[in-house]
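Appendix C. Worked example: Cytochrome P450
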Amino acid sequence: MGISPQLLYFVAGFSFLYYFAQRRPNPLHSIPTIGFSAPFLTYLSAVRWLVDAQGMLQEGYAKHKVFKIASWDRWMVFVSGPDMNEELSKMPDDVVSIQAAATDLIQAKYTLGENPVEPPIEIAAIHGPMTRNLSAIVPDIVEEVVLSVEKAFPQKQEWVEMTRMPEVLLQCIACVENRIFIGAPICREPEYIKIVTDFTVDVMKGKLVMDLLPMRLRPILGPLLPWRRKAIRLMKKHLGPVVAERQKGLQEHGAQWDNKPDDFLMWIVEGAWNAKIDSDFIYQTFLMANFAALRTSSLSMTQVLYQLAYLPECIQPLREEIMNAVAEDGWTRAGFNKMWKLDSFIKETQRYYGIAVISLRRKTLKTATFSNGVVVPPGVLMAAAAAATHFDEGLYKDAAIFKPFRFVEKREADGESTKHQFVSLTPDWIFFGLGKHACPGRFFVSILMKALLAKIILDYDVKIGGDGSRPPNMSLATTVIPSLKARVLFRKRQSYDG
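Step 2, the predicted output written as structure tokens:
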């Protein structure tokens, strides 16, 4: 005897209701949603998230202190405003993790490699010896900036159009950063620079591939990505003798040997030696550090250069300030600290355009509870709505208007001279994060960008090509990507007394 369709419908319906009745309540369900909450419809929200993350975050920021948005494979929770930014930044490390968030967001297990040391060796090196020695390494930064600009930019005293500026600046910055990371002449070798710049691009390529894969397929297909293994192999071939020599020195003389090299690679080698980690990890760590430094600084620098070319009327006041600062203090950290207008121009560009629409990325390790009662369960990615914060009219007057010297005016108020610098950390300025896990390399990045911009401003007249409009950015989920198609014109100036 057959089973009636009515009975099948009844059993299916009862099973469906019983399943939902037995489910443990998920705290995420009580968090307000931007977009759709219903199953399957969340994929429509995920599509919008890819192309309009800023719009969704702006909507959530205007309505809620804490809200959630669906991406392809998970819910993400976001906080709004300075108070919640500060609260998120102060959550204990055993409750939320910045490293676990970074691992998830960049698919680091497959793109960068797993990090067996906590805190990461490269972070310790940046926090410690690099920051302590920053004033001493400024002359090396400046020297390499001069060489890289002369190599990459036209030397004619007539207008010359350049394209693919993100790639040009990536090459320049790779040489300058690696002057500090590994020293000269290796930092100028085309083969070496190709390894680190290709790896920077390949990590983002790998992240995109992994993001598009279903979560269950990632452990299967992720290890097949070839780029990290290839980069480590090439780096080992290129730096193997240098690393071996430094390891031998540590083994024979210990950490205090006479004439021990004093650069970033040495700090990484010594950190790995102390942690008893094998050599492959040294190359992987060195690549990780290059990726983190190159990606942030090259994208940020591209945004600033486009804005400078779009507003050529700003060049002369910046030029005068730079020349005055150099005349007083030379090309030193003190001299760069006096370039308030240049600092403001950089910061306002990042406020207005930026390179990401979120900041303060964290992943919950335990249940996290906010002061307003919102509960976020373990295993959830959280972040602050950075771009929405930076466009908050209550925090930034005329926030929708680009004001190149906005922060000079703020710094001129009594007691405010250091609060509004590009590298400053405040709950309403979270480009570099906030609190103890803020970007440790921000001081180095700031000086590098100022040195590179100062050299370009002193040596060149600059303007946007085409119809004179600023090239639009491309947005891909939380990432803001400067246009690759922009045309920028440069004209070499006559020599100046610098």
